[in-house]
Amino acid sequence: MTAALAAAAVSKRVILPSGELLRLVDQVDLEVMPGTSLAVMGRSGSGKSTLLALCGLLSAPDEGQIAIGGIDTCHLTDREKARLRNSHIGFVFQGYSLVPHMTAAENVELPLLQGGRMGRRERLGLVRAAMDLVGIGHRASSSPRQLSGGEQQRAAIARALVRSPALIVADEPTGALDTDTADTVLGVLTQAALERGAALILATHDVQVACRADQILHLRAGRLDDLGQAA
Question: How far lies 162's CA from each of 61, 91, 125, 168, in Å?
């Protein structure tokens, strides 16, 4: 079986104003198979968000290779990466990133509008299925401000799932939620990814969140330590 995500010796560095070279991600290797989940733990500033941006093709590594569904992205143009990202990767962020003047359903529909080759009836069917999957089908016509924090994050999860991506990248997906809501939303995210056969990689500083994943890795100063299988 081909890995949904495979990273080999990936590094990302920045030059500080002092001239010092800082490695945000340093020679990282990881692999996430379809239908499995991986949690990357680490303190603030450890490089978690940088690593997820690399995995989601939002940033390019300075060294190493990243393959999405067996496709080596090393030599792709920006346009080709954007096309691959839209078709293969779904994103869930801590701040929801919903468009405030659109309904929940319209927000979920946004990824389907890129490319313009899908009819409206097909789009609405996919939106309805994704929203039902995360339990907010009845909130389709609500605006983001009418939704609770948990419902907003469910809408963001539905948006990430609507194209049935091979990989879901979630950066601190429950960081803005209270404990009970976070646990519910995280269960929705992991179960929905499993039902769609997607691979899930999430960044978190919360042990309880990480323990919901199949495997936990710890990022320290840009390097990964394997903490083994989650309980």
Answer: 28, 11, 10, 11
Q: Bin 217: left if φ > 0, else alpha if -120 < ψ < 50, else beta.
A: beta
CA distance 129 to 42: 34
Degrees, nearest 5: CA angle 203-208-211? 75
Per-residue pLDDT reduced to its tens digit, 110-149: 999 986 678 999 999 999 999 999 999 999 999 999 999 9
Cα distances (Å, whole numbers) of residue 18 to 44, 45, 64, 72, 137: 22, 18, 26, 35, 52
Is the whole-model pTM more than 0.70?
yes
Q: Would you say 128 and 100 are in contact if contact means Cβ atoms under 8 Å apart? A: no
User: In Å, what is the CA distance from 122 to each residue of 110, 113, 222?
Assistant: 13, 11, 43
Q: pLDDT tens, 95-112?
A: 889 999 999 999 999 999
Residue 56 in tokens:
């989601």
Query: What are 23's strand-pairing partners?
Result: 13
Which positions ≥6 away from 108 have C-beta within 8 Å?
127, 130, 131, 155, 158, 159, 162
Q: Residue 34 and residue 30: Cα distance in Å, rounded?
A: 14
Closest CA to 204 of 11, 8, 37, 27: 37
Task: Round to whole Å and give the CA distance between 167 and 4.
Answer: 6
The dihedrals phi and psi of 84, each to the nearest 5 degrees, come to -65, -40
